[in-house]
Design brief:
alpha+beta, Immunoglobulin-like, 4 domains, 5-stranded antiparallel β-sheet, 23 helices
């Protein structure tokens, strides 16, 4: 062996073993040598040049001289240089050599010391960056899984802690009541970006966008109301992760109904909700109009609220072992517990492998016991969905409150892989219990395993709501700010039926509600289930209508008219000839089985002369509707760009105490950048 040959020396070295300790020492050595964030001193080796810099200079000098013109010679020289580079980086003078071999990293020289050990101040940071800073130890201490991490081997390794720690809270993040500042800041953050292949594992319900219909051929439109908001939260989570949402995840009505609106409500509980209908020009088509139907539920005041019997049915299977799943779930339900009265009752059922009772029915006055039961939950095992549901219903029935609220609150990532395997079997079980007065709401957590289709089935058949909780701020919105709407129903089986007058309207299209469509005959059938409206809920439905004779009409007139001796539409030109449509709403009060009816004619008196004269809430809801259609790539909004949506939403932002509308504007900007379309 030639001792002067660096390649021979390199050959004789054994390959280092990849251990956790070696990786940690390598990381620490790299941070000392290449501390870009803090060091104002020369970085790398003491002579001010990085190891790779020396090699680059040698190589550049050789290639710029005669060797570059002689490929054969250049090839002979390249191998020794590469060997020298590797030998030098692994040598005793390099921080990588001892670290990779399992030795102790060399001491850091004065020129390598980070700037925090120097008197010189680091360069000033942008204002936003300073607002985002938070001490890492505070982050880890605030995380529910920090205690579990500390009990494991090598738990003190900073690299592992940093890998699992969330990013600091962005500037302007509002704190959540009931938790420490550190917990609140950490938990309101959106989840980390996920690769497309992980996102694609979420199970979504495929559906077609509502088509344009002829008012002459199909004058009646019937659907169930929808107060769910899961779609908006899911879309937001995708966009903030840098991924355009799957069109099947976009339910436009859930995006519209995510926002609180100041629609006019009823004056007394005897009338559970009030309806306001307006007709205005369409911003994305000058030849059509929008018929805007706004419903506002009666807001039950705290003194009037009935007692609540709640069962938390919590998925603790192995798939819930992620920061945005069980840890976030526990923090979210802590917020809800703090909203309950002393007379309310809480039970906790878990399911993972088999169902178990984590907390027998406990009065709200014993909050410490309820919170302790939540804190003790852990994630492991498979998902016994059927067993968990049955146990939850058993506890709900054992503590049933007559004339009160009896509700199961299912929290899951949507994975039911033990028990009934089909949505239909779960639907049958939930429908049977709903008739006994026990309702069911569902809250989805996490991504990559989310069964959105199952969530919709459960909520729709359980007389409950479906929400997707991706941050603690969203949990506060659903379980604190809107707790009365979430928990206390004021009407059930709420259906809407609109009959259009073909003498005035030639075509119409319902925006959204595709998964809530009902048959015409279902409207008067009290046995057909429909949506529920909670205390103070607002519901919005928007139709795009084409006036008779408009150039926007997409279908040709029928050659033989309405099939009578009169031209098409003349049959409707009698006493109600001037009406656009007739809106009917059928509903049941919570304790009743017979439905009641509200009817509202839509006439010229409901018209708004220009889109700009519509209220701020109406214009903002239309902007959200346009955005949802844009994400679904609907033909109607294909030429309506994101900038115009931004313009409408910005002008109609109005009062925004919780920043929901400001956040919507940021989502439009993100979608515009990701979509690449203006």
């Amino acid at each position: 062996m030639n001792e002067n040959d660096p390649l021979d020396g390199l050959r004789g070295r054994p390959a280092p073993q990849p251990t956790r300790e070696a990786r940690q020492r390598a990381l620490e050595a790299a941070l000392r040598s290449y501390d870009e964030n803090f060091s104002t001193a020369p970085q790398g080796s003491p002579d001010g040049k990085r190891q790779t810099g020396r090699i680059s200079e040698i190589w550049r000098g050789l290639m710029q001289r005669k060797l570059a013109a002689t490929p054969a010679i250049a090839g002979l020289v390249a191998l020794p240089i590469a060997g020298y580079a590797a030998w030098h980086l692994m040598g005793e003078g390099s921080p990588f050599g001892p670290a990779l071999e399992g030795g102790t990293p060399p001491p850091v020289t004065e020129t390598q010391a980070p700037a925090r050990q120097k008197e010189a101040a680091p360069a000033p940071k942008p204002e936003v960056a300073e607002e985002r800073e938070i001490d890492l130890s505070t982050q880890l201490a605030a995380r529910p899984e920090a205690d579990q991490l500390a009990a494991q081997p090598n738990a003190a390794a900073p690299v592992e802690a940093m890998r699992s720690a969330p990013m600091p809270a962005p500037a302007g993040t509002r704190m959540v009541r009931g938790l420490s500042e550190a917990q609140s800041k950490l938990s309101v953050l959106p989840p980390e970006p996920m690769p497309p292949e992980a996102v694609s594992q979420d199970r979504l319900q495929a559906f077609d966008t509502n088509p344009v219909r002829s008012a002459l051929e199909s004058p009646v439109s019937t659907f169930s109301i929808d107060v769910d908001t899961a779609s908006y939260s899911y879309v937001r989570s995708m966009l903030k992760s840098g991924v355009m949402p799957n069109p099947d995840s976009v339910r436009v009505e859930e995006m519209i109904n995510y926002f609180p609106y100041d629609w006019k409500g009823p004056d007394a509980a005897a009338t559970p909700f009030n309806t306001t209908v307006s007709v205005m020009p369409t911003p994305w088509n000058e030849h059509t109009q929008l018929m805007h139907v706004a419903i506002k539920g009666y807001d039950v005041q705290p003194a009037q609220q009935p007692a609540a019997n709640l069962v938390f049915l919590i998925d603790t299977s192995g798939s819930m072992n992620a920061p945005d799943k069980l840890p976030l779930l526990k923090s979210a339900f802590r917020l809800l517990v703090n909203q309950l009265s002393d007379a309310d009752t809480v039970s906790i059922v878990t399911y993972a492998g088999s169902a178990g009772v984590a907390l027998e029915p406990t009065k709200g006055s014993d909050r410490a016991k309820i919170l302790a039961a939540l804190d003790n939950l852990g994630a492991e095992g498979s998902t016994a969905g059927e067993a968990g549901l049955k146990e939850a219903y058993r506890l709900a029935e054992s503590s049933f409150v007559k004339d009160g609220v009896n509700r199961i609150m299912l929290a899951t990532d949507g994975d039911f892989n033990v028990g009934p395997s089909s949505d239909e079997e779960l639907k049958t079980l939930i429908e049977a219990k709903r008739k006994d007065g026990v309702f069911l709401s569902v809250f989805g957590f996490g991504r990559g395993n989310l069964n959105d289709q199952l969530m919709q089935t459960i909520a729709q058949n359980g007389n409950g709501t479906a929400a997707y909780i991706d941050t603690l701020a969203e949990a506060e919105k659903v379980l604190v700010q809107e707790s009365r709407a979430t928990l206390f129903p004021i009407a059930k089986d709420v259906k809407i039926q609109v009959e259009f007058n073909p003498a005035v309207v030639s075509e119409y299209r319902l925006i959204g509600y595709e998964t809530r469509a009902l048959k015409r005959e279902d409207f008067n059938n009290d046995r057909v289930d429909a949506g529920e409206i909670g205390s103070g809920h607002s519901v919005t439905a928007i139709y795009e209508i084409t006036p008779k004779g408009s150039p926007a009409q997409m279908m040709d007139d029928l050659r033989y008219g309405a099939g009578t001796d009169k031209p098409a539409g003349d049959a409707a030109a009698g006493a109600h000839g001037g009406e656009y449509a007739f809106v009917k709403i059928r509903y049941k009060l919570p304790g009743e089985d017979a439905s009641r009816l509200i009817e509202t004619p839509v006439t010229k008196a409901n018209e708004v002369a220009s889109f700009g004269q519509a209220s701020a809430d109406q214009r903002f809801s239309v902007a959200v509707a346009a955005f949802g259609q844009k994400l679904r790539d609907t033909d109607a909004t294909a030429s309506f760009d994101y900038d115009r949506i931004m313009e409408i939403a910005t002008a109609a932002r109005g009062s925004d105490p919780f920043g929901y509308r400001a956040e919507f504007l940021s989502l439009v900007r993100l979608a515009s950048a990701l979509d690449g379309k203006r």
